[in-house]
Design a protein that fits this description.
77 residues; elongated; transmembrane; 2 helices; mainly alpha; membrane
Length: 77
């Protein structure tokens, strides 16, 4: 089964939320603002989907391009 960009985006956002939660709770020791966590996770989700979309659109064109051929011999003129 092919991975959907939406599922990959959800996985990235979940990892972000978990890391942010651990940082806020144990490292910085601040109160966890749910509103900010939701806003940041939605931003990460949308950004990851946009990035994956660009990679899917541009990546195929770059990999299919033939390498540039350069003349390295002595000239015939």
């Amino acid at each position: 089964m092919e991975n959907s960009s939406f599922m990959i985006g959800i996985a990235i956002a979940v990892i972000f939320v978990l890391s942010k939660f651990i940082e806020k709770k144990y490292v910085v020791k601040e109160d966890i603002a749910v509103k900010h966590m939701v806003r940041d996770s939605l931003l990460v989700y949308v950004s990851s989907i946009a990035g994956l979309f660009v990679i899917n659109q541009v990546g195929e064109n770059v990999s299919l391009a033939s390498p540039t051929v350069a003349f390295t011999g002595t000239p015939d003129f």
